[in-house]
Amino acid sequence: MHFAQSYLQLRHGPDVQVNYVDVSSAEARAQFADLVAQAEKHSLPYPLVAINGQLRLAGPASGYQVVRLIEEMLAKRSTPAQE
Description:
The protein has 83 residues and is mainly α. Helices cover 51% and strands 11% of the residues. The protein has four helices and two strands; from the N terminus they run αααββα. Strands 1-2 form a two-stranded antiparallel sheet. β1 and β2 (54-58) form a beta hairpin. α1 packs parallel to α4. It is globular. The mean pLDDT is 87.
C-alpha cells in the first residue's frame, strides 16, 4: 500500500490521504465499527479497503487497484454534472 500512498500524494498532493489501519485492535474496531460489521455480516476477507467511508475492496488488494479506484472517484468529482 506504500506505493499507492506515495503515488497519490505525488500526483494529487494533500487532496488525497491513504491510511492503513489494523482493525485487530479494539480501538480501531470501534472507530471503524460500521465497516467491520459489513465485513462480518457478508463474511468478507480482510484486509478491507474503504474510500471515503465506503467499503470498496475486500481481500488482498494491490496498490494499483487502490490507485485506480481513487482516481476514478476523483475523475467523477471533477466531471461537471450534465443537465
